[in-house]
Amino acid sequence: MDVARAPLKKLDLIYCQNVLIYFARDRRKQLLSALADLLKPGGMLVLGAGEVIGFTHPSLTRIGNRQTLAFRRSG
Ligand SMILES: C[S@@+](CC[C@H](N)C(=O)[O-])C[C@H]1O[C@@H](n2cnc3c(N)ncnc32)[C@H](O)[C@@H]1O
Question: Which atom of ligand 1 is least distant from the CA of 15?
Answer without folding.
Answer: 6
